[in-house]
Write a structure and sequence with these properties.
The complex is a heterotrimer of chains A (282), B (328) and C (330). Helix content of chain A is 71%, strand content 1%. Chain A has helices spanning 14-38, 41-44, 70-102, 107-121, 125-135, 139-150, 153-167, 170-177, 182-218, 230-241, 247-274; one strand at 2-4. Chain B is α/β, with parallel strands linked by helices. Chain B has helices at 16-19, 73-81, 103-109, 130-135, 143-153, 170-183, 200-215, 227-233, 264-271, and strands spanning 26-38, 44-57, 62-67, 88-96, 99-100, 114-117, 188-192, 219-224, 236-241, 244-250, 316-318, 321-323. In chain B, a hairpin with a 2-residue loop joins strand 4 (88-96) and strand 5 (99-100). By secondary structure, chain C is mostly helical. Chain C has two domains: 2-81, no CATH class; 102-289, MetI-like (MetI-like fold, Orthogonal Bundle). Chain C is built from 14 helices and two strands. Chain C is flat. The termini of chain C are close together. The chains are: A mainly alpha (282), B alpha/beta (328), C mainly alpha (330). At the A-C interface, helix 4, helix 5, helix 9, helix 10 and helix 11 of A face helix 1, helix 6, helix 7, helix 11 and helix 12 of C. The complex binds adenosine-5'-triphosphate, iron/sulfur cluster (SF4) and magnesium ion. Adenosine-5'-triphosphate binds at residues 35, 37, 47, 49, 67, 69-75, 85, 87, 119, 193, 225, 288 of chain B.
Chain lengths: 282, 328, 330
C-alpha cells in the first residue's frame, strides 16, 4: 500500500494567503506614504532643548543634534523616496514599453534595441547615475532624471521576449493577413497581454529605484543637506556615529529597508497571482 | 485469486516452473494518481490522471501496457518507482515479490531490483559522459569493462562511452538507456516507450534486446502506444484508457477481427491497424481531470447502452483475461 | 576550422567592445560638456591659485578651449586613444596613474568580497534548493530577499557602529590612511581597513548567487535526467554530487562573473562608508568635485571592468561546457 497526499502548507490556501499579503502590503505602503506626506514643517523644526535624545516614547526614533524628531524626518524621507521612486518607475516603464513594442517592428530595430539594453548594462549603474547627476548640474533634478532614465533595461528585456512570443501567435498572423495596421495589432493584441507583466514590472521597479535614490543621495549627489532624504539622513549620521548616537542611522535605514521590502513583497505576490507558472517556486 | 497464466500459451524460452503457480513478481491494485496544481489567480485544481489501475507481472514475463498519448503511462512508471513529482497524490496497493511495496521500500529497490528505461533521451545527464552514466548502475568492480562489454553487445563502440549525450545520435542514446537496464541486476524492468523515433532496424534491435532481457529471467513492463511492437514481444497486453486498465488480454486473443478480445476499445485498436481493417477510432479520450460518472469509453463506444454512462463498470475476469465492460 | 571560429569570436567581441566604448565616449562627453558645470571652467577656476600659468596652458590645449564641441571631442578622443586621459584636478596626477593605484586597492576589496559571497551564496543556494519547501529553505529565501532590500551602505554603517564604535576592534573609517603612501602602511593595518568593507560587500553579494543557485538546483532536480538518476537509485546527497553540482556550478560561476557591475556599485558605497581609498571613492570625489578627466576616465574604465566580467562569464561556458567546447571542434 502506498499512499501519499500533497501536504497542504497552511490551513488557508495559497490564493487567500497571497491576496491577504497583497492587501496588507498595500495598506502598509499607503500608511507610510500618507503619514509622510501629512507631516508638516512644524514637526521637522529645530528644537535645541531636545537635542540628542535616544529613542523614547515621546520620540520613538530619538532626536538629532539639532533636536529634530527623527521619526518625522524618517517618514518625510520615505515619502520623498516614494515620490522619486514613482517618477522613476513610471518613466522607466513607459520607456520599456515603447522600446519593446518598437523592437517588434523589424529585425534591425530589434538589434538596435538589444544593443541599447547592452549599452546601458555595460556600465555600473551607480556610475551612470553619477554621470547624469553631474551632467544635470547636480541638484535633485539630476537625481530624478538619472533614476528615471536608467531603470528600463531589465524590464525592456522581459517585455521584448514577451512581445516576440506574442508576435508569433496565430491570431496576430490572422490580423496581419486581414490587413490590420501594426498599430491596431499592437493596441488590440499585444498590449492587453503585456499588461500583467507591465504591472508587475512597474511595482518591482520601485525597490531598485528607491535603493538607488538612497544610495546616490548618500554619496552626496543631488539633494541639499536640508531635505530629509534617507540617504542624506544616513550620510549626516556618519559624523555622529563615533559619539554613540546609533539611532540616527539605525531607524531611518531600517524603515527604508522595510519600505523596499514591502514593495518587493507586493510585486512578487502580484506576480504569483497573475502568473503562477513562472513563479511557482518563489 | 484468479490466475491468468493457467490459460497462457507456454513460453518455450522459459522453464515452466518460472511462470506457473507462483505469486507474481510484481502486482499493482487500484492505483490512482491525482495532480494538484495552481491555475491562474492561484486557484487550486486537481486532475485525476490514473483512476483504477491493476496489473500483475510474473517472472520472465513481458507485459505490454498500451495506451494513447497522455493516458498516464509514464506516470504509472513513476508511481511504481516512487519518483513522482511533488504535486502528485497517489494511492494504491503495490506488491513486489510477494511483499508489500511501501515508499521506503521503493527507495531501496529502485535501481537495484526495479530498473527503468526512460522514454526520453533527455534522461541522460547532458554534462556526464555516456559510459559513466551506465557505470553508475553497476555495483560490482570493473565497472568500466562491464560497461564496455554491454556497449559492445548493443552495438556501441568504446568511443561512445567517452561521448557526451549531445554527441550521440538519437538511436545511440536509446541504446545507452537500454544498456543501463541490461547491466543492472534488476528483476523488473520498466521500458517506457523505447521504440518510437527509431528506424526499422533500430526498432527491431531494441525489441530484440527487450526479449533478451526477458530471456535472462527479468520481467518486463513494456510501455508503448505501438500495438504492433507490443504484439511482437509481449505475453500479455494491458490496455490503458483514460487512466484505467480496460482490458488485460493474452497475446493470442489478437486474431481475426478481434472476436476473442473482450473490450470494444481493444477491438477498435486492433482493427485500426494497417494490416487489419485500418478503421480509425473516432473521437478522443477524455482529458485528465474530466469527470466521468460511468464508463470512461462511453462517448466513443459503438455498443454502449444507457446505463454505461451512469455507473462505472468493474474489472471482471473473462476467458483468462480481465475486462472492464458491462457487455463482455 | 577551429582557428577560424576562435578568431571570429575574438573579432566579434572586439567589435562589440569598441562600439560600446565609442558610444560611451560620445555620450559621456556630450553629457559632461552640456553640463552647466562647465568642465574647463571648473577645472581651471576651482583652484586658480594653485594652477600655474603653464598648467593652465596645458589644460587649455588638452581641452581645446576655444574650439567647437566636435573639435574638442576629437582632440580629447585622440588624446584618449594615445593613452592620455588627462590630469586629475583633485589628485594632481595623471588620471591613468590615479585609476591604476586606486583600482588596485578596490580590486583587493572586491576580490575578497567576490570570492566570499560566491562561496557562501552557492552553499546557501544548494542547501535551500535541496530542502525546497522546508523551513530551512524558507529561512534562507527570506534572508536573501531581506538582503536584496537592504541598502548596502546602511549595512556598512551598522557594521561600523558595532565593530568600530562599540567594540573598537577596527578603526573608524575616517582615520584611514588615505594620504599615506601605499608602502608605508603595514600589512596588519591594511587588513584592518579591508575587513569591514569586504564583509559588507560579501554579505550583500550573497543574495543574488544564492537565489540563482537555488532556482537552478530546483530545475535540475525536476529535470528528466534527475528523474532517471533517481530511478537508478540515486538520492539526496549522491544525486547532488553526481548530477546536481555538475549542472549548477557553471551557471552560478558565470552569473557571478556577470555581476561585476553590481560589485563595483557596492564597492562605491562601501568605500564611501569606510573611507577606503579605492576607485569607488575616487569616482564620487570626481563627480562631486567636478574633476572631469577623472570622471570620464573612470566611466571608461568601469565599462572595461564590467565587460571583462561578462567576457569571462561567456568564455567560461565556451571553455568548460562540453556542449560548447566540442561544438567548436565539430
Ligand atoms: N507534473 C505534472 N503536473 C500535472 N499534470 C501532469 C504532470 N505530469 C504529467 N501530467 C499529465 O498527466 C498526463 C499523463 O502523462 P504521461 O506522461 O504519463 O502520459 P503518457 O501516457 O506517458 O503519454 P506519452 O505516450 O505521450 O508518453 C498528461 O496529460 C499530462 O498532462
Ligand atoms: S461499459 Fe458500456 S460504454 Fe463501456 S466499453 Fe462496455 S459497452 Fe462500451
Ligand atoms: Mg510517456
Amino acid at each position: 500500500m502506498i499512499e501519499r497526499t500533497v501536504k497542504q502548507s497552511n490551513s488557508c490556501n495559497l490564493r487567500q494567503r497571497t491576496l491577504v499579503t497583497i492587501i496588507i502590503a498595500f495598506i502598509l505602503l499607503i500608511g507610510i506614504i500618507l503619514s509622510g506626506a501629512l507631516i508638516g514643517p512644524e514637526k521637522l523644526g529645530v528644537n535645541l532643548q531636545l537635542r540628542n535624545i535616544p529613542p523614547s516614547f515621546a520620540h520613538l526614533f530619538g532626536t538629532d543634534w539639532l533636536g529634530r524628531d527623527m521619526l518625522a524626518r524618517t517618514f518625510k524621507g520615505l515619502a520623498l523616496s516614494f515620490g522619486v521612486g514613482l517618477t522613476a518607475a513610471c518613466i522607466s516603464t513607459i520607456i520599456a514599453l515603447v522600446l519593446s513594442l518598437l523592437s517588434s517592428v523589424n529585425k534591425a530595430m530589434d538589434a538596435v534595441i538589444t544593443w541599447l539594453i547592452d549599452l546601458f548594462l555595460s556600465m555600473p549603474h551607480i556610475v551612470i547615475l553619477i554621470l547624469i547627476s553631474f551632467a544635470a548640474g547636480g541638484g535633485f533634478k539630476g537625481v530624478v532624471i538619472g533614476l528615471a532614465l536608467t531603470h528600463w533595461p531589465s524590464l525592456t528585456r522581459l517585455l521584448r521576449a514577451e512581445v516576440l512570443q506574442l508576435k508569433n501567435m496565430n491570431y496576430v498572423a490572422v490580423s496581419k493577413s486581414l490587413g490590420k495596421s501594426r498599430l491596431w495589432i499592437a493596441r488590440h493584441h499585444i498590449l492587453p497581454h503585456l499588461i500583467p507583466q507591465l504591472i508587475v514590472g512597474f511595482v518591482l521597479l520601485f525597490p531598485h529605484a528607491i535603493l538607488h535614490e538612497a544610495a546616490i543621495t548618500f554619496l552626496g549627489f543631488g539633494l541639499s543637506a536640508e531635505a530629509p532624504a534617507i540617504g542624506i539622513i544616513l550620510s549626516e549620521s556618519m559624523r555622529y556615529l563615533a559619539t554613540g548616537m546609533w539611532w540616527l542611522a539605525f531607524f531611518p535605514g531600517l524603515s527604508l529597508l522595510a519600505m523596499v521590502g514591502i514593495f518587493d513583497l507586493l510585486g512578487r505576490n502580484i506576480r504569483r497571482l497573475i502568473d503562477p507558472f513562472h513563479s511557482q517556486k518563489l | 485469486m484468479m490466475d491468468i497464466n493457467q490459460v497462457e500459451k507456454s513460453d518455450h524460452t522459459l522453464p515452466n516452473s518460472l511462470i506457473k503457480d507462483k505469486t507474481p513478481l510484481f502486482e499493482v491494485n487500484h492505483l490512482s494518481l491525482t495532480f494538484r496544481q495552481y491555475k491562474k489567480g492561484l486557484r487550486e485544481s486537481s486532475t485525476q490522471v490514473i483512476r483504477d489501475f491493476s496489473l500483475k507481472i510474473h517472472q520472465g514475463e513481458i507485459v505490454a501496457v498500451v495506451g494513447a498519448s497522455g493516458s498516464g503511462k509514464s506516470l504509472l512508471a513513476d508511481a511504481i518507482l516512487g519518483i513522482l513529482p511533488e504535486n502528485a497524490d497517489v494511492k494504491g496497493d503495490l506488491k513486489f515479490a510477494g511483499e508489500e511495496l511501501t515508499m521506503e521500500k521503493q527507495m531501496l529497490l529502485r535501481g537495484k531490483d526495479i530498473s527503468l528505461i526512460p522514454q526520453s533521451t533527455n534522461a541522460l545527464d547532458p554534462l556526464m559522459k555516456a559510459g559513466k552514466q551506465v557505470q553508475s548502475v553497476i555495483k560490482r568492480k570493473n565497472k568500466k569493462s562491464i560497461q564496455e562489454r554491454i556497449f559492445h553487445k548493443v552495438g556501441l563502440s568504446k568511443k561512445a562511452g567517452e561521448m557526451y549525450p549531445f554527441e550521440l545520435s538519437g538511436g545511440m542514446a536509446r541504446r545507452v538507456l537500454v544498456s543501463t537496464a541490461m547491466v543492472s541486476e534488476a528483476k523488473l524492468v520498466i521500458a517506457d516507450e523505447p521504440t518510437p523515433g527509431l528506424d526499422e532496424h533500430a526498432r527491431n534491435e531494441t525489441i530484440h534486446y527487450i526479449k533478451q532481457l526477458a530471456d535472462g529471467g527479468k520481467s518486463i513492463m513494456f510501455i508503448t502506444h505501438d500495438i504492433t511492437a507490443a504484439l511482437e514481444v509481449a505475453d500479455k497486453v494491458a490496455v490503458f484508457y483514460a487512466g484505467e486498465t480496460v482490458e488485460i488480454a493474452n497475446i493470442d486473443d489478437f486474431t481475426g477481427k478481434g472476436e476473442n478480445l473482450r473490450h470494444p476499445y481493444t477491438r477498435a485498436l486492433w482493427n485500426a491497424l494497417p494490416q487489419n481493417d485500418f478503421i480509425p477510432l473516432k473521437g478522443s479520450q477524455p482529458l485528465p481531470g474530466e469527470t466521468i460518472n460511468g464508463c470512461a469509453f462511453e462517448s466513443r463506444c459503438p455498443i454502449a447502452v444507457e446505463y454505461c454512462a451512469q455507473k462505472p463498470p468493474q474489472n471482471k475476469s473473462v476467458s483468462g483475461g480481465i475486462v472492464r465492460c458491462f457487455h463482455a | 576550422m577551429r582557428f577560424k571560429r576562435i578568431s571570429l569570436y575574438v573579432v566579434k567581441k572586439i567589435v562589440k567592445l569598441v562600439s560600446l566604448l565609442l558610444t560611451i565616449c560620445i555620450l559621456s562627453f556630450l553629457l559632461v560638456s552640456y553640463s552647466p558645470i562647465d568642465p574647463v571652467q571648473t577645472y581651471v577656476g576651482a583652484d586658480m591659485m594653485r594652477v600655474s600659468p603653464e598648467q593652465q596652458e596645458n589644460i587649455a590645449t588638452y581641452w581645446g578651449l576655444d574650439e567647437s564641441r566636435t573639435e574638442q571631442f576629437l582632440s580629447w578622443g585622440k588624446a584618449v586613444l594615445e593613452g592620455n586621459l588627462g590630469t586629475s584636478l583633485i589628485y594632481r596626477d595623471s588620471v591613468a596613474d590615479v585609476i591604476a593605484e586606486r583600482f588596485l586597492a578596490s580590486l583587493v576589496l572586491m576580490g575578497f568580497a567576490w570570492v566570499l559571497s560566491g562561496i557562501f551564496g552557492f552553499l546557501l543556494g544548494i542547501v535551500a534548493g535541496m530542502r525546497e519547501g522546508t523551513i530551512v529553505d524558507r529561512i534562507i529565501k527570506g534572508y536573501c530577499f531581506l538582503l536584496a532590500s537592504t541598502p548596502a551602505f546602511w549595512l556598512g554603517l551598522l557594521l561600523l557602529m558595532l565593530f568600530s564604535v562599540s567594540l573598537g576592534w577596527f578603526p573608524v573609517g575616517l582615520a584611514s590612511p588615505a594620504g599615506i603612501l601605499a608602502e608605508d602602511v603595514t600589512f596588519i593595518e591594511r587588513v584592518r581597513h579591508l575587513f569591514l568593507p569586504a564583509l559588507t560587500l560579501s554579505i550583500v553579494g550573497v543574495a543574488n548567487v544564492a537565489l540563482h543557485t537555488r532556482q537552478k538546483l530546483i530545475e535540475v532536480l525536476q529535470s528528466e535526467f534527475a528523474r532517471f538518476a533517481k530511478a537508478k537509485g540515486e538520492n539526496g546527497f549522491s544525486l547532488l554530487w553526481r548530477h546536481g553540482l555538475r549542472n549548477i556550478s557553471l551557471p552560478a560561476i558565470s552569473l557571478h562573473f556577470a555581476s561585476f557591475g553590481e560589485l563595483f556599485g557596492g564597492a562605491v558605497l562601501a568605500e564611501q562608508v569606510f573611507s577606503y581609498p579605492g576607485l569607488g571613492q575616487a569616482v564620487v570625489q570626481a563627480g562631486l568635485g567636478g574633476d572631469v578627466p577623472l570622471l570620464l576616465g573612470i566611466v571608461l574604465f568601469s565599462t572595461l571592468f564590467v565587460f571583462a566580467g561578462n567576457l569571462l562569464a561567456d568564455l567560461l561556458y565556451k571553455l568548460i561546457d562540453p556542449r560548447m567546447r566540442k561544438g567548436e571542434v565539430q
